[in-house]
Amino acid sequence: MFSKLFFVLLPKLVELEIHSLERINNNDTTGLQELVKCQEVGIDSEDEHGMTLLQHAAFKGRKDICQLLLDLGADPNGGHHEHQYSTLHFAALSGNLDICQQMLQYGSKSDAINSVGRTAAQMAAFVGNHTVVSTINNFIPRADIELYTAAPNECNESKLPPSAAPALHKFVMQVNLHPVHLLLTIQKLPLLYENLSKVKNVLELLSENQMKRGREANEILSLKYHYLRFLVERISKEQLQHPDKSVVELINQYIKGFLKQRPSDGFPEFLDNFIREAIRTFPFKETTIFRQLLVNLTKTKQETPLALNLISSCINGQRGFQDDDSCATCGQEKVTSKCSLCKSVQYCNRDCQKLHWSIHKKECDKLAKQFTNLEIKSQDSENKPVDAEPSK
Ligand SMILES: *[C@@H]1O[C@H](CO)[C@@H](O)[C@H](O)[C@H]1NC(C)=O
Ligand SMILES: *[C@@H]1O[C@H](CO)[C@@H](O)[C@H](O)[C@H]1NC(C)=O
Ligand SMILES: *[C@@H]1O[C@H](CO)[C@@H](O)[C@H](O)[C@H]1NC(C)=O
Ligand SMILES: *[C@@H]1O[C@H](CO)[C@@H](O)[C@H](O)[C@H]1NC(C)=O
Ligand SMILES: CC(=O)N[C@H]1CO[C@H](CO)[C@@H](O)[C@@H]1O
Ligand SMILES: [Zn+2]
Ligand SMILES: [Zn+2]
After folding, report:
1. Relative to the CA of 190, which ligand 5 atom is closest?
2. For ligand 5, what atom is nearest to the CA of residue 194?
3. Those residues with Cβ within 8 angstroms of residue 309's Cβ, 6 or more apart along the chain or in another chain
4. pLDDT tier at 43 (50, 70, 90 boundaries)?
5. Which of 78, 171, 255, 359 has its CA 20 to 30 A from that of 235?
């Protein structure tokens, strides 16, 4: 199957196409622009395998060329590839994350399937590119959000101030579903945390709306919106109970709660219970996804894999075992900074390290000793340590 897949990408070409493809290969934006502007090649013209210029550029990872073609009006859903690969399929297969995002922003349909019935995300999963899978799965068109931020008419107010639309869009597109990461994201978006109850209502509507789309209902996205709403609602309630405190302060308290571990075994009980509760309160109980999650939750007792892993793999797509290179505070993956004392725990940055210090200080010494023993055995320490000492 693999060889067949790539074999079809080596088409024989007519001369003009050779010119334009050469320019795509050479990243020659100006040259290609000339060809298209002089109408020597049509913007959506196809080669003998039904592939457009945009599809070639996407497959080759030429983002600037893609942008030029899109600016000149190329159709992000164009082409009649003989195996029904869309432009998004080509971008996903070649692992070009930027171009996947670009195509989605320009309206490439993520549910388009190829001749073997696979979507672009499924093809990316097939070639093992998880980053691409989760990016496609989490993509949400701006218009979905703007539905609730634009005023319906002169007399009626919008559900959320229009100025908050970009902030909400950023929030719902987050791929990392660790509550600490999501709270840190909210903390950086004043337009969200100053309108929490409205944000909560909009998230609820978004969740419902995903289920009202008939055959296009998206259970996964509906669950994601519900999960985000559950978190926002908690903070919003705290705010009502403690009008004297700032939202930023309340969020910090919540973050501390999520980081706390059971003294006996280091299990983050509050975080786990929070996510279990978020799942249990999903209102669409008849969905396959809900029933599967419930079964899987009872199978995982309060030990790893956590409810967080369950909901993440449900929304972001299945993956193999997670590498041990994620931030101890917010779960962000592939971070490279380490605690400079024990060199055993990873963080995104000093902010994440500071938040974790009250927990980590209890075990840092012990880990440091283990690390020294390890280091005598093998002399590799590739990751750079967080430079300054954590504040105590
Ligand atoms: C392609 O050209 C653009 C400028 O037109 C440049 O910014 C970009 O880095 C180039 N990409 C590659 C892969 O060489
Ligand atoms: C997956 O996509 C990312 C992002 O574009 C890329 O950096 C990486 O090399 C790809 N990995 C594989 C295994 O194709
Ligand atoms: C606008 O407001 C009126 C009265 O307040 C209400 O009856 C109507 O349903 C609202 N329309 C929309 C589109 O929300
Ligand atoms: C539940 O677990 C099964 C078996 O491990 C897995 O195939 C399925 O995708 C999981 N479903 C959800 C929604 O987590
Ligand atoms: C209704 C409401 O609380 N609106 C607030 C949303 O956030 C903006 C920006 O911070 C505030 O100015 C609004 O008062
Ligand atoms: Zn972090
Ligand atoms: Zn340490």
Report:
1. 10
2. 7
3. 322
4. confident
5. 359
126 lines ligand 2 (CB under 6 A): no
What ligand is nearest to the CA atom of residue 369?
7
Contacts of 187 (CB under 8 A, 6+ apart): 193, 248, 251
pTM recorded for the entire structure: 0.81
In ligand 2, the atom with minimum distance to the C-alpha of 130 is 1
Confidence (pLDDT) at 280:
96
Identify which of 33, 63, 64 to mutate to test ligand 1's pocket (most ligand atoms within 8 A of the CB): 64
Give the pLDDT band of residue 381 (cuts 50, 70, 90).
very low
Full set of structural domains in the chain with CATH: 2-137 (1.25.40.20), 142-316 (no CATH), 337-374 (no CATH)
Per-residue model confidence (pLDDT) at position 6: 47
* Chain CA centroid to CA 324, Å: 19
119 phi/psi in degrees, rounded to 5: -80, 170
Assess whether pLDDT exceeds 90 at residue 61.
yes
Q: 218 CB under 6 A from ligand 1?
A: no
Residue nearest to atom 1 of ligand 5 (CA): 195
Do residues 228 and 274 touch, judged by C-beta distance below 8 A?
Answer: no
Beta-bridged to residue 337, according to DSSP, are: 347
Query: What letters, b where the CB count within 10 A reaches 16 and e where it falls short, cover 176-196?
Result: bbbbbbbbbbbeebebbbebb
> Is 94's C-beta closer than 6 angstroms to any atom of ligand 2?
no
Ligand 4: distance of its center to the CA of 292 in Å?
A: 6
Tell whether the model's pLDDT for residue 190 goes beyond 80.
yes
- Which SS3 state, helix, strand or coil, does residue 204 take? helix
Which residues, listed in sequence order, are joined to residue 46 by a DSSP beta bridge?
52
Q: Give the end-to-end CA distance of the chain in Å, rounded to a whole number.
A: 57
Check whether 323 has a pLDDT greater than 80: no
Split at pLDDT 50, 70, 90, the class of 319 is low
Which DSSP helix (H) or strand (E) runs through 307?
A: helix 307-316
Which pLDDT tens digit goes with each residue over 142-159? 889 998 988 777 778 889
Residues 297-317 have a mean pLDDT of 80
